[in-house]
Amino acid sequence: MKKIFSSLLLLAGLAAATSCAKDETVAPVITTASSTLTGAQEAPTPNSSAATGSFTGSYNQTTMMLTYTVTFTGLAPTMGHLHIGAPGTAGPVSVPFTPNNTAGTGFVSPITGTVKLDQTQATALLGKSMYANLHTTTFPNGEIRGDITTK
């Protein structure tokens, strides 16, 4: 009886030790995001700017970190942001871009960054209700915009 009890106790101890020995890692869920920025997408008033741009990003749903690159040509942005808003609607600034020119007051292409999104921002990004917007002195409400899609 003692041998059976000792054997069972030993097996239970081994099972407990092996089940705690390794932490299982969870593979991150990565979503790609992209957009083409044009004046025709500006809302509520589209414009005929010849400037263009692109937004590309990688969103880690596990850590909620968004890494992005915005490229552009044909404009000198004074401000840039990600906004929350459905296509065709204007929405509030959600993620401001950090100025990257030598004076620290405007932007040169490319604009890059990494930001931790909160739940509202993550829901907007994954729900296709976020857009990239670049503003200029000519178009202070936004010269080019791109509604972000995800895959």
Automatic annotation (TrEMBL):
Residues 29-151 form the CHRD domain. InterPro entries: CHRD (IPR010895). Residues 1-21 form the signal peptide. Keywords: Signal. Coiled coil: none annotated. This is CHRD domain-containing protein. It comes from Hymenobacter nivis.
